[in-house]
Write a structure and sequence with these properties.
alpha/beta, binds adenosine-5'-triphosphate, 3-stranded antiparallel beta sheet, 6-stranded mixed beta sheet, 9 helices
Amino acid sequence: MKIELKDVSASFADSDAPALNDISLTIDQAEHVVLLGPSGSGKTTLLRCILGAVAPTSGMIRVGDLDPTDDSDLRALRRKTGVIRQGNDLVLGLRAQTNAVLGTAPAWGLREWASVLRGKVPGRYQERVHALAEAQGILPYLRNRVENLSGGQRQRVALVRAVLSEPQLLLADEPTSGLDPVTSQAAVDTLREAKGVTVVVSTHDLGIARQFSRVIALRAGRVCFDGPQLSEHDAEEIYQGTAVPA
Ligand SMILES: Nc1ncnc2c1ncn2[C@@H]1O[C@H](COP(=O)(O)OP(=O)(O)OP(=O)(O)O)[C@@H](O)[C@H]1O
């Protein structure tokens, strides 16, 4: 899905400075993009605006032909989008494998619901859940309740859930936080393998950023870098605050 933002600003009631300040950018259908920027620079807010979870105070957003601020478009947008949130949002009390299939629920019939209620993975998802869980190193934990998993294991369950629903858009907010280098790379590989899917990943990890062909950096709610390759010098500017707002 193509993402277009034009003059988008967003503010929160209890903050003086806008979280996003006049952002205009286009992310093409099937493009893979990394969002960088210091803590508080607006990365999560930008992802939430694209998802329709935060309404901009001004400006225009289109995701495909959908308007995230329009309630009637929002359901369709959410169905087409896989999301990995910071701190994730798994359903406690359910097994990892049940959480992993929850993103596919809109497509379930009675048979799938019956499987899930018995704590099983519906037949048509079994092979893919197995493969994704194996790639993420969480196969041994699939039957565990998610509250008994480590933070990094939960993070990977959230990744499997997001990818399993075969979204047209993947929004991943710091999907590798809390992961060791090996599992972090496996998570990045899974995101990069999502061919034909528009992928937007926020991260603080410059090593991850360098694996993506486009980096968009924010500073104080503004785009301060938008380019294909991130040099040491660019990274220094982004984090020292000397990059000139676009
Ligand atoms: N729900 C909220 N209510 C009030 N202010 C908020 C809210 N969410 C974010 N903000 C503010 O908006 C600004 C941008 O926050 P945001 O979470 O988008 O930054 P970020 O770049 O994702 O940060 P981090 O890298 O620490 O996750 C910050 O100043 C933050 O305090």
